[in-house]
Amino acid sequence: MIESWIKQALSSRNPAARGARSDFDLNRERDADHLLQEPVRKAAVLVPIVTYEDDITILLTKRTEHLAKHAGQVSFPGGSIDPGDENAVAAALREADEEIGLSADHVNVHGSLDTYRTGTGFEITPVVATIQPGFSLQIDDGEVADVFEVPFDFIMDRSNHQRQSAVWRGRRRHYYAMPYDGYFIWGATAAMLVNLVDVLEAAREEA
Question: Higher model confidence: residue 188 or residue 143?
Fold first, then answer.
């Protein structure tokens, strides 16, 4: 059931798919269009939807505090697309294996959400997959401090999609946030989850 819903949501006919989203969607500054034209580093993340027999969750990681970029933040498994990666899907699967030991044997890829451009210079392809239960994880503690799962129903509930703001580089910037059980899900990760909800809701309405 969830697999067919996701496949329909990720089809090219989904009216909620924009093709591209960015940090600037909530921050329409005068220089935003200029910034969006600057060179970016291509990246990919895996959006892992775990399909238990009686529950559905989304698996997330918390990055270690010593990393040069996005230290301590909640994120999906993922990273830069390397020259040896065939495509974004290959990069997302490789990074998930390297970061948390999630074997591709348990991963069923269904497609991608809109690309996401961050203010820090990354263009991310979010690769959506369902994960079969029974997997075991081996965390790379040099990159990942924790792995946790959020109930699918929590993410689908629009009342949990907060809009917050903070001053960054001298400007007030707005972003999505989804605080959950002591974890602060925000920024690009929260925005990609909003994208997931957008396309899933649109697919359900059309069904």
Answer: 188
C-beta atoms surrounding 5 within 10 Å: 14
Distances (CA, A) of 78 to 64, 66, 95, 155: 14, 17, 5, 20
Q: Which residues contact 44 (CB under 8 A, 6 or more apart)?
A: 78, 79, 81, 85, 88, 89, 91, 92, 95, 124, 125, 126, 127
Running DSSP on this structure, what letter comes out for residue 54?
A: S
Q: How far is CA 202 from CA 7, 14, 16, 71, 144, in A?
A: 12, 7, 6, 34, 33
Q: Amino acid letter at 155?
A: I
pLDDT in tens, 176-188: 999 999 999 999 9
Q: Which helix (H) or strand (E) holds 188?
A: helix 187-206
Q: Which helix (H) or strand (E) holds 92?
A: helix 88-100
What is the rounded distance in angstroms from the CA atom of residue 127 to the CA atom of residue 81?
A: 12
Out of 34-38, 82-86, 190-194, which region has the weakest mean confidence (pLDDT)? Answer: 34-38
C-alpha pair distances (Å), 85 with each of 1, 75, 76, 80, 93: 31, 21, 18, 10, 10
Token pair for residue 205?
């309405």
Tokens of 103: 């074997």
Q: Which amino acid is at 90?
A: A
Structure tokens at 201: 């809701």
CA 98 vs CA 24, 36, 69: distances in Å: 30, 30, 18
Q: Would you say the C-alpha torsion 155, 158, 160, 165 has a positive or negative sign? A: positive
Give the predicted TM-score (pTM) of the model: 0.93
